[in-house]
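cron nightly-structures :: item 1 of 1
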Amino acid sequence: MSVLKQNDPIHDMQIDRFQLVSRVETLEILEPAISVYARVPNDHTIFSGHFPGHPLMPGVLLTEMMAQTCGFLLLSLCQFKKMPFLAALKDVKLRDFVLPGADLLCRATREHDGSGYAVMKASISRVGEEKRVCDGTLIFRITPYPNDQLRQHMLERAHKVGLEVHHDSVTVGEENVS
């Protein structure tokens, strides 16, 4: 498992761009499961109002990190040929505060897939800790891409987080995970 370097901005979430996954660490197609890393920025305008004198990562953004993690797993399972869209949240729990600068690990697994929907389980913990700060069940609708522009964007985003999309498989870096 890789260790994030302190003050390495390449691993910071890009909150302004709504990119809450920095790097895919593991991808297991057969289980299926994924784990991703991201660092909450030390300084961001979002913290000036959430909350003054006590900055906390908003729970809605933690939920979005889980959704994006699940999305990368679902995209990988269909080799980026279809697009998952978040359809529902169930039993999402915010279990602990997340402070600026926190290094986070999000894990997701697919529990069920059928009839155009996928049921996913996801959790977030601080790197090096087992205690979860957030977890829940997320349901996705799997549909054809609405246009080529979105598919191209997702392929570019996959590359930025360390996924390589091949004709019939998806890999993390040099490691083949198909």
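cron nightly-structures :: done
Strands lie at 23-28, 33-39, 83-94, 103-114, 117-126, 132-143, 163-165, 170-172, 175-176.
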